[in-house]
Amino acid sequence: MSDQAKGQDKAAFLVKILGTQHASWQGTITWINRNETQAFRSTLELIKMIDSVVEQEEDGDGACEE
Description:
This protein is an alpha+beta fold.
């Protein structure tokens, strides 16, 4: 049985790249499941945000620490 069929939704994100500077992206990320938006200033910061949310959802927490 799939995770979604068990009632466990996967993390879904909408990433808007608003610009580039110093070979990195700046923009916003929206967590679709939570309807929460945060700005990011670099590609590394974006990846860290996504990683922390995915890790929390795997642990079953669901709260955002960013």
